[in-house]
Amino acid sequence: MDEDPSGSSWFSRLFGGKKEFLLEQDLSNKAYEEYRRLLLKARPEVKGKELHLQLPGGEVILSEGKLRIKARDKKTAEKILRNLHHYEQPPSLWPSYGLSYSLKRSHKPRVQT
Fold first, then answer.
1. Is 76 exposed, middle or buried (CB count within 10 Å of its CB: 0-12, 13-18, 19+)?
2. What's the CATH fold of domain 21-87?
């Protein structure tokens, strides 16, 4: 009995792990500093020397000398890379480019007097 190859690919797509596309770009020191300044406006999560910015379509990871974009597919990763420069614009315009920012709240208890 022959197995249907399309059936096995259907099964793997249904139950297979989540696949992500990784786009990497090597950066000069100057480009790294510019991206760092730009991404800090979006209040990323800082893990050591890395900046992690979670976006609706993927994640931007900036480390010294390297920019990585993880997304569900190549098209989305390239779109995120193209739109990163829009962080120079006011935050009210970011959602129209698929960008976002996090509002981190401090967990300090309020003191009432």
1. buried
2. TATA-Binding Protein (3.30.310)
